[in-house]
Specification:
alpha/beta
């Protein structure tokens, strides 16, 4: 009897071990992401000064559709969490970014690398505190509105993040890449001659990367998509997300219950052309939404394993020589320069005369994220398209590159654009309040920093 019992026990042990071995792959397959979603309207409740066009001379008048902020919280199988917030804003300046990240850190215990902020760069959204300080002749009452709205925005986005983080459910992520061709390199193709052109010149990136989020039951939860193109179809005085806003509305209408989130790419030198009409804004929104829908119809997605890695770093970007006081005085005496140029010169001259020397470099934010095997870079500023091409060459064509992320402090020209000058390479620095353009070597400095940050994840 004892020998028989020992034999049976041994057999049970063997069977148990075999069951466990065969169960391991099944358990791995069942591992999933946890995803939380939230969105809220951020349309100002009163007329305010709008950002993006220097010719505007009064506050907003109305609304085409609401501006939105949307959040997604991603948690991998090991408990690592990333919070992404997309906004229908021109760009988040550093003073607002710092306040928001501090609030998220204190209230939600997130570290800096866990926070990714992106602005759609619509030119029909409110000016924020610390942005475009010399561009608009806003009076003190209007400036007070800007400060108040910026403070309110930090509170709203913090609440939004908390909601997304508190409501995570099991989900699956997958990635695909579509195509849309309404961006035009504005430096190499004249807008007024577009209809006569038979060939478009200059670098571009027509890709539409898409991350699909589905529930474990297959139900569509969210679509995260990107495109590299200025949101500058509209230029009036009505709040609007521009073509980006229409694309998100189109997708949320097509897929009930889905949260559509747009992340602006490296489109600082790319314009949607032709433009200037509401019809064009709706058209491009439909085109972009159709690029996403094509992937959905063809089920052209690859699954992303629930594994998350991320890193964040600020690197010093050197600025060029500080202008001489005599040159600034001469600029103030000229009568053929824009008003904002004179306001810039007057402000800088006053600083210099007080002995207040401008900073010689700027803390530029770089973020690197891996979702499964999908590599994503989120870079600050108005990023020109060459950076996306550089990073795709270095890391593979499926690499996703966001511009307008975290801090939007000015244009980030390629080395070629910096040498050529023009608006993106030089004069835009005045618009953003910097005392000079960037020093040469900017492109290699940023790409090298991206490579170093990627190495930190390995």
């Amino acid at each position: 009897m004892e020998a028989g019992m020992i034999g049976k026990n041994r057999m049970l042990v063997v069977l148990t071990l075999l069951c466990c071995c065969f169960a391991l792959p099944s358990m791995a397959e069942e591992a999933s992401w946890k995803v939380g979603l939230a969105k809220t309207v951020i349309t100002p409740k009163e007329p305010m000064w709008m950002g993006g066009y220097a010719f505007r001379d009064q506050p907003s008048k109305g609304k085409i559709h609401d501006l939105w902020a949307k959040a997604i919280a991603l948690e991998d199988a090991g408990g690592k969490t990333l919070l992404c917030i997309s906004t229908d804003l021109l760009g988040i300046p550093k003073i607002v970014e710092d306040r928001l990240c501090e609030a998220l850190t204190q209230r939600l215990k997130l570290s800096r690398e866990q926070i990714l902020l992106n602005s759609s760069h619509t030119h029909s959204a409110p000016v924020l505190e610390g942005a475009l300080r010399d561009v608009y002749p806003a009076n003190e009452a209007e400036k007070a509105k800007i400060v108040a709205y910026s403070a309110w925005l930090v509170e709203v986005l913090t609440d939004l993040a908390q909601e997304a983080l508190a409501d995570k459910v099991s989900a699956k992520l997958s990635v695909g890449s579509g195509f849309a061709q309404f961006q035009v390199n504005r430096r190499n193709n004249k807008e007024g001659e577009l209809r006569q052109l038979h060939e478009l010149k200059g670098p571009n990136d027509f890709s539409v990367p898409v991350i699909k989020v589905t529930g474990t039951d297959g139900e569509l939860m969210a679509l995260l998509f990107s495109y590299a193109c200025h949101a500058t179809v509209l230029s009036g005085y009505d709040w609007s997300g521009d073509y980006v806003g229409f694309a998100q509305l189109e997708l949320e209408e097509r897929y009930a219950g889905c949260q559509a989130m747009f992340f602006q790419g490296a489109g600082a030198d790319q314009n949607p052309l032709p433009r200037q009409t509401l019809g064009h804004a709706k058209q491009y929104g439909k085109v972009l939404a159709a690029a996403v829908e094509q992937l959905m119809i063809d089920d052209a997605f690859q699954p992303l394993e629930p594994q998350l890695n991320m890193a964040f770093r600020e690197i010093p970007l050197p600025l060029d020589t500080i202008p001489a006081e005599a040159d600034l005085t001469a600029l103030l005496e000229k009568g053929d320069v824009p008003d904002y140029t004179q306001r810039w010169a007057a402000r800088l001259l006053e600083r210099l005369q007080k002995g207040d020397r401008p900073e010689r470099d700027y803390p530029y934010p770089i973020q690197c994220v891996q979702l499964g095997k999908q590599l994503l870079f989120a870079l600050g500023g108005e990023l020109t398209v060459q950076y996306a091409l550089d990073l795709k060459e270095a890391f593979g064509n499926q690499t996703i590159v966001f511009g307008y992320s975290n801090d939007v402090m000015g244009y980030i020209p390629s080395e070629r654009i910096l040498k050529e000058g023009g608006y993106e390479g030089e004069s835009s620095q005045m618009v953003y309040g910097h005392h000079a353009k960037w020093q040469q070597g900017i492109e290699q400095r940023i790409i090298d920093a991206c490579k170093a940050l990627y190495s930190d994840l390995q």
